[in-house]
Recover the amino acids of this structure.
C-alpha cells in the first residue's frame, strides 16, 4: 500500500519484526623493552590484530576468538566500543573493550567504580601484573582479561614501528574502521542500495514518532509549554550535561520562573532575572564567589546576587561540581546556554513559546512558507544575544570577539529533536492533517546535520565510502541511521552475518 503524502510513516516496526535477526548458537571451545610500551601502542596492537589470533586464552584459561575488535572511541569511556568476541562457554559476546599496559591499571584508574565501564566485555592488557584472571566492574561483575604479551610475535622494541600506520590517522582525529558485510552487499547490488534508502526513510520517521510518543506521555501531567521548557533545558545540556539540565528544570519549573520573574520589567531585566534564578539554583553563582573578575564580570555577578536575593529563595539546590565542565567546549558551557535560554524564556514567558512555534507553522500554507517557518524558528536561537555572555566565557574571561550563544548546528538539532516531534503531537491530537503535512515536508527536506561519532561509525562500517553522502543526504536519513544503529548494530546478542538489517538488504539485492 502506498504511503500517505505528508504522513510520518509508522511502518518501520514491521521491518524490525520481520528481520529481527537470529541469535548465534552457543559456542563450545576446547576444554582446556628498549622503547616504552604505551597504552596507545597496546590499543593499536588490539585493533590491528598484531598478535597470534589462532590460539588465544584469557587469563583464567578460557578460549577466546576475536570476531571484531570494535570501533575506536575518540571520546571518553572505554577505548573500543561494540566489539565482538567468542568466549569459551559463553558463545558470542558483544560489548566494549578497555585497554591498559598493566592489568592493575584497571583499579588504579578507578574503572571498578565507574558506570561508563559497566558494558566492558574484555580487559586487554600488555602484561598481567596481578594474580587475578578477572577484573570487576562497578556492579561486581567479573570481566575476563587478555594479556597480549603472550601472543605478540614482533620484538617489543619494534612494536612502535609496527603500529605507526595506525597512529598517523589518530593524530589527525581519525581512526581506522573495519568494513562490515553490509558494505560489500551495498557496493555491488543496486537493489540493496535502494532498499536501504527506503529503510532509512522509514527509520527516520520512526525516530521522530518515538520522541513524539515520549512527549505525549509527558503531556498527561504537563502543559505543552511545560514539556517544551523541560525539553529545551535538556537539549542545552548536549550529551555531557543533559541530566544536569534536566535536574535543574525539575528544580526550577516554568511556573517557578513565571512566579518569580516580574512580567512588567523590561525584557533585558527579565532575562537577567531568569539567569539569577537558574544560575543560583544550579550552584554556579556560588562558585563564582571570590573569583578574579574583570570589571564587567564583577558588575554582572553582583547584579545576579542582588536579584537572587530579591527572589526570597536563596537556598542552593545544586552543587557546581555536579556539572561536567571539562567535557564541554568553553563556548558550550552551561552558563552560556542558560543565558541563551533566559532570553527565549524572557521573550515568551507570558504568552508562551510553544504558541509562537505553533503559529509559525500554522501560517505556512505551502512548501516555501514552511521553509520560512523553519528559518524563523531557528533564528529565535541563533540570533539570541546577551550583553554579558556574548562577550565572555566566564565572569573572569572575556572573548576577543563577540560569539553566538547558540550556533546553527545546535539550533538545527533542537528543531529536529524537540520542536518537530512536539508539534507533531499537537497536530495528531488536534487532527490537523495539514500541519502534519507541513512538518513532514520540512523534515524530508531538512539538510543533514554535522555527523557525530555514531554517524561516522555507521558511514564507515555499513555504507560504501563513495555512496554514503549520496544515500544519507537529509537529516531524516541521518535520524534513520541512528535508529538502525540502535536496533541492529548496537545489539549484543546478534552477529553481523545474522543481523536483521543485513538480511533485509541482502535479500532485496539479489
Amino acid at each position: 500500500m502506498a504511503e500517505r503524502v505528508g504522513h510520518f510513516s509508522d511502518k518501520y516496526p514491521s521491518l524490525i519484526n520481520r528481520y529481527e535477526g537470529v541469535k548465534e548458537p552457543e559456542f563450545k571451545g576446547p576444554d582446556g623493552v628498549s622503547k616504552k610500551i604505551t597504552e596507545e601502542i597496546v590499543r593499536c596492537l588490539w585493533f590491528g590484530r598484531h598478535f597470534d589470533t589462532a590460539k588465544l586464552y584469557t587469563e583464567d584459561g578460557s578460549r577466546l576468538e576475536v570476531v571484531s575488535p570494535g570501533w575506536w572511541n575518540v571520546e571518553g569511556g572505554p577505548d573500543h566500543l561494540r566489539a565482538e568476541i567468542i568466549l569459551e562457554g559463553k558463545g558470542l559476546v558483544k560489548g566494549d573493550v578497555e585497554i591498559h599496559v598493566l592489568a592493575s591499571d584497571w583499579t588504579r584508574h578507578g574503572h571498578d567504580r565507574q558506570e561508563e565501564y559497566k558494558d566492558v566485555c574484555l580487559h586487554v592488557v600488555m602484561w598481567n601484573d596481578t594474580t587475578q584472571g578477572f577484573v570487576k566492574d562497578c556492579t561486581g561483575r567479573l570481566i575476563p582479561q587478555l594479556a597480549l604479551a603472550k601472543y605478540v610475535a614482533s620484538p617489543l622494541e619494534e612494536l612502535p614501528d609496527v603500529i605507526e600506520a595506525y597512529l598517523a590517522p589518530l593524530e589527525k582525529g581519525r581512526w581506522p574502521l573495519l568494513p562490515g558485510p553490509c558494505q560489500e552487499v551495498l557496493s555491488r547490488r543496486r537493489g540493496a542500495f535502494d532498499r536501504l534508502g527506503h529503510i532509512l526513510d522509514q527509520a527516520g520517521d520512526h525516530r521522530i514518532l518515538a520522541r513524539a510518543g515520549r512527549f505525549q506521555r509527558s503531556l498527561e501531567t504537563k502543559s505543552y509549554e511545560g514539556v517544551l521548557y523541560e525539553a529545551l533545558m535538556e537539549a542545552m545540556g548536549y550529551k555531557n550535561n543533559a541530566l544536569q539540565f534536566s535536574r535543574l528544570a525539575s528544580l526550577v519549573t516554568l511556573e517557578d520562573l513565571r512566579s518569580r520573574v516580574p512580567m512588567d520589567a523590561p525584557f533585558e531585566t527579565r532575562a537577567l532575572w531568569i539567569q539569577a534564578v537558574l544560575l543560583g539554583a544550579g550552584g554556579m553563582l556560588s562558585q563564582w564567589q571570590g573569583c578574579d573578575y574583570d570589571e564587567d564580570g564583577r558588575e554582572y555577578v553582583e547584579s545576579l546576587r542582588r536579584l537572587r536575593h530579591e527572589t526570597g529563595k536563596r537556598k542552593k539546590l545544586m552543587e557546581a561540581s555536579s556539572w561536567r565542565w571539562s567535557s564541554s567546549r568553553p563556548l558550550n558551557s552551561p552558563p552560556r546556554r542558560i543565558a541563551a535560554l533566559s532570553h527565549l524564556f524572557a521573550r515568551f514567558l507570558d504568552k508562551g513559546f510553544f504558541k509562537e512555534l505553533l503559529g509559525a507553522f500554522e501560517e505556512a500554507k505551502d512548501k516555501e512558507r514552511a521553509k520560512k517557518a523553519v528559518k524563523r524558528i531557528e533564528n529565535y536561537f541563533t540570533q539570541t544575544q546577551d550583553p554579558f555572555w556574548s562577550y565572555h566565557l566566564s565572569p573572569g574571561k572575556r572573548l576577543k570577539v563577540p560569539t553566538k550563544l547558540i550556533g546553527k548546528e545546535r539550533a538545527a538539532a533542537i528543531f529536529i529533536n524537540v520542536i518537530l516531534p512536539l508539534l507533531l503531537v499537537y497536530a495528531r491530537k488536534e487532527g490537523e492533517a495539514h500541519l502534519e503535512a507541513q512538518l513532514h515536508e520540512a523534515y524530508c527536506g531538512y539538510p543533514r546535520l554535522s555527523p557525530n561519532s555514531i554517524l561516522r561509525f555507521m558511514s564507515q562500517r555499513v555504507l560504501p565510502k563513495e555512496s554514503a553522502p549520496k544515500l544519507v543526504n537529509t537529516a531524516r536519513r541521518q535520524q534513520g541511521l541512528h535508529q538502525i544503529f540502535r536496533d541492529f548494530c548496537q545489539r549484543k546478542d546478534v552477529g553481523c552475518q545474522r543481523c536483521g538489517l543485513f538480511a533485509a538488504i541482502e535479500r532485496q539485492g539479489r
